[in-house]
Amino acid sequence: MSVAIITDSAAAMPPELVARHGITVVPMWLTVRGEPELEGERSLEELVTEDRVTTSAPTPGEFEASIKDALRAHDAAVVLTIASSMSATHASALIAAQSVGGDVRVIDTATAGVAEALVVLAAVRAAVAGATLSEIEDRARMVIGRVRLVATLSSLDHLVRSGRVPGVAGWAGRHLGINPLFEFREGKVHRLRPALSQEAALDRILATVRRARPEGEARLHVAALHALAVDVAHDLLERVGELDPVTAFVGEFGPVMVVHTGPRLAGLAWWWESPSA
Questions:
Q1: What gap in Å lies between CA 96 and CA 73, rounded to an integer?
Q2: Would you say residue 171 has pLDDT above 70?
Q3: What count of other Cβ atoms lies within 10 Å of the Cβ of residue 227?
């Protein structure tokens, strides 16, 4: 069985990985000063200077068109979306799959950014290996249960304004001048103990990856993420290289994510694969 893999642009998939693996990416939408535009139509550097930017999910029709196109060349399709708690994207994909019918599975990755991309890549590898549709779904859900994303920001202001971190407004205000840390898991942002400097924050992220390593042999799949902090992301990826990852790449948060997080975000997403996995 030939299975197509489809995701959304919130996954921050590097273009070279998209092209190499034949992944279909459905773009998110931005509204800038009242005018809609597809994510990727202009640079992130330009968009972060705009004050009036909102985001929206791809429409069911856009997912439907992508699914139908994929099914012309494949027997089935798996659609992996940003966390349903963060966006209506998952709901749009479900509506589209129901409309198309056939062998289409829609999976809520419960995460975003390069953590979502790691789930997508796991599904791709299973598909290439000849797994069935159910086996690909099982593989993706296993990785969803293991993948973690920890990052640091220069400020929590954007997250507070986005309303996606209930109750942190006072916490952010009490910690001005330090580096907030957060983890995104199970569809929610969880605040972590802040660091006194960016270097201390990065050290703590790397230590978290090491501590998460299971007993015995294990293979690391990791991705560095950033929002206009590519130098920091490459430094993190170089430093985590001491753990000999089998998957390692850098992904940039797209404008849809940066509207909510703000610029200068940097961190790691990862999951550890045991030999039995």
A1: 18
A2: no
A3: 26
Class of residue 171 by CB neighbours under 10 A (exposed 0-12, middle 13-18, buried 19+): middle
Instruction: Band the pLDDT of 156: cuts 50, 70, 90.
Output: low
DSSP state for residue 130 in the 8-state scheme: T
pTM: 0.90
- Rounded Cα distance between 261 and 202, Å, is 17
Q: Name the residue among 49, 8, 35, 81 with its Cα closest to residue 258.
A: 49
Least confident range of 18-22, 36-40, 235-239: 36-40
Is the domain defined by 148-273 classed in CATH 3.30.1180.10?
yes
Q: What is the pLDDT of residues 246-273, one digit of tens each?
A: 999 999 987 777 776 777 889 999 999 9
Q: DSSP labels for 141-203?
A: HHHHHH-EEEEE-S-SHHHHHHT-STT-HHHHHHTTTSEEEEEEETTEEEEEEEESSHHHHHH
CB 82 within 8 A of CB 46: no
User: Token digits for 29?
Assistant: 């939408």
Strand 24-26 and strand 3-8: the pairing is parallel
The CATH label, of 3.40.50.9100, 3.10.580.10, 3.40.50.10170, 3.40.50.670, for the domain at 3-145 is: 3.40.50.10170
Q: So where are the chain's domains?
A: 3-145, 148-273
